[in-house]
Amino acid sequence: MSIFEDILAARGLTGRARDAFLNPSYDAKHDPFLLPDMDKAVARLVQAHERRERITIYGDYDIDGLTATTILLDAFESLGFEHVEAFIPNRFVEGYGLTTAAVEKIAATGAQLIITVDCGSLSEKEIVRANELGVDIIVTDHHNVAPVQPPAVAVINPKRLLQDYPEMYEGFVLKSLTSVSEDTVVSSQNDFASASLSSAELASLKQSSTSKESKSKSSGLAKVSSEADAKLYPFLDLAGCGVAFKLVQALQTRLNGLPDGQEKWLLDLVALGTVCDVVTLVDENRANVFWGLKVLAQTRRPGLKALMLVAKVDPKTVNARSLGFALGPRMNAAGRLETAQYALDMLRAKDPEEALAKAELLDEMNQARRAEQDKIYKEAIIQAEQFTNDPVLVVSSAGWNHGIIGIVAAKLLEKYKKPTYVLEEMGDEAKGSARSYGDFSAADAIRASDDIITKGGGHKLAAGVTLPTANIQAFRERVNKYYRDMKLHNQADLLLPRSDTTTRLEHITEELVELLASLEPFGNGNPQPILHSRNLLVLHQRRMGADGQHVKLTLQDKNTKLEMLAFNAPEHFFAEVGSSVHVWYQPDINEWNGRRTIEGRLLHLVHSSEDKLS
Question: Domains in the chain, ordered, with CATH?
Answer without folding.
Answer: 3-300 (3.90.1640.30), 388-494 (3.10.310.30), 501-607 (2.40.50.460)
